[in-house]
Amino acid sequence: MIKQSIKLDCNACKSRLLGVLCNLDKEGIQDCNEHKTTNQYKKGQVIFYEGNQAYGLYCIFAGRVKLIKTGVDGRQQIVRIAGPGDLLGYRSLFAEEPYAATAETLEDATICCVDKNAFFPLLAKDRELALGIIKKLAKELREAEDLATSIAHRSVRERMAELLLMLKETYGKPSKKGTIIDLQLSREEMAEMIGMTQETAIRLLSDFKKEALIDVKDREITILDPKGLVEVANIPL
Amino acid sequence: MHWSDLIQASQELSFRKGQVLFYEGHIPYGLFVITSGRVDFSSTDRTTSFEEQSWKSPQGLVVGIDAALNGEPSCYTVVAAEDCKTLFLPKSALTTHLKMDLFEPHTCQSESSSPPNRH
Question: In this predicted model, what pLDDT tens digit does every residue of A134-148 receive, in sequence order?
Fold first, then answer.
């Protein structure tokens, strides 16, 4: 069944306020409104493919998206999970390089795309926007370096504990038992995020459950003992 | 407006077999000219929930132009039936060119200071 096209007004968009576009001035918002296209994606649909030339900047209105890189051996690695207010594809746009990862929805999502021919003039005019993006790029570079160090020097057990703590910080919702991670990832996806096999990820989660660090019900994970996880992760203070 | 102007504004995008150019129900971000390989069209019937009505395109086909121009959702999903290359023209470039005076004659002769006589 063909859906009607949806119109989202950047002026009224709460997700915009969550990301770097929060500082856009009135003119910038109007430019975005005129040149953007909004589409609703189902879970598992692809927004753009690794290796293709960047043609637009994507902004997530609702839902979550995973960015996946494929290695030479065909193994996939999730390099980032993006949510409402996050931008996708901007690094490739600025570097004038092909998209460095494939963007695939983790759940039903609404995504806006601003044509690059409209975005670059906006960036040239708006200093605050440009500065916001530079800060975001710097932060992501640091996170990527930390992840590379983590994969190289840490044990699989430490990496899994650190991942659970990061998911708790970003997606955690308090409950009576502990903190529920409000992002349902498959074991394979969790393994892809921290460079291990699915079997290892399943074994580690089972071990953590026996040690009462977490509780697991299908894909729902509840953190029961965050201090215990911090010790396991061996995070330097 | 000449196609050569539009081609200059386009960029090459490659799709491996099985990758999606755009989905049914989406407004495409532009139009695609299939320069090599073939694509498969599919659409879900309005009364049933499974895929049917699938066609394979010839090369050289332009896809997405209707949805790109009228801003309405696409009636079909377009998937690469084999590895293919396309020329992608963003919607903004297409509409910019269409807004230009379509009846402006394209002169290949030496320039003159006054506008060409249309009558």
Answer: 888 888 888 878 777
Q: At residue A61, what are phi and psi to the nearest 5 degrees? A: -85, -45
Q: How many CB pairs (< 8 A) connect A and B?
A: 59
A19 close to A87: Cβ distance less than 8 angstroms: yes
Helix (H, G, I), strand (E, B) or coil at A82: strand
| Chain A residues whose beta carbon lies within 8 Å of the beta carbon of residue B93 | 117
User: How far off is chain A from B21, nearest CA to CA, in Å?
Assistant: 9
Q: Look at residue B117 and tell me if it is in a domain.
A: no
What's the CATH code of the domain at B47?
Answer: 2.60.120.10
Closest by Cβ to B29, choosing from A2, A49, A55: A55
Domains parsed from chain A with CATH numbers: 10-151 (2.60.120.10), 156-233 (1.10.10.10)
Report the half-sphere exposure of A60 (CA within 13 A, side-chain side).
27
Residue B52 reports pLDDT greater than 60:
no
Task: Kindly state the greatest CA–CA separation across chain A.
Answer: 56
Res B114 pLDDT > 50 = no
**Cβ atoms A146, A235 nearer than 8 A:** no
Select from A46, A49, A113 the Cβ nearest to the Cβ of B29.
Answer: A113
Do the domain assignments include residue B55?
yes
Interface touch A115/B91, C-beta < 8 Å = yes
Instruction: Give pTM, 2 decimals.
Output: 0.78
Task: Please determine, for residue B110, whether its predicted confidence score (pLDDT) is greater than 50.
Answer: no
How distant is the Cα of B48 from the closest Cα of chain A, in angstroms?
Answer: 9
- Cα angle for residues B79, A193, A133 (degrees, 5° grid): 80
Is pLDDT above 70 for B113? no
At A213, is the pLDDT very low, low, confident or very high (cuts 50, 70, 90)? very high
Domain that holds residue B89: 3-97
The predicted-structure confidence for B72-108, as pLDDT tens digits, reads as follows 888 889 999 999 999 998 887 777 777 664 544 544 4
Q: Does a structural domain hold residue B118?
A: no
**Does B86 fall in a domain?**
yes
Q: Considering CB atoms only, which of A51, A53, A118 is closest to B11?
A: A53
Interface touch B29/A115, C-beta < 8 Å: yes
Q: Look at chain B and report how many structural domains it folds into.
A: 1
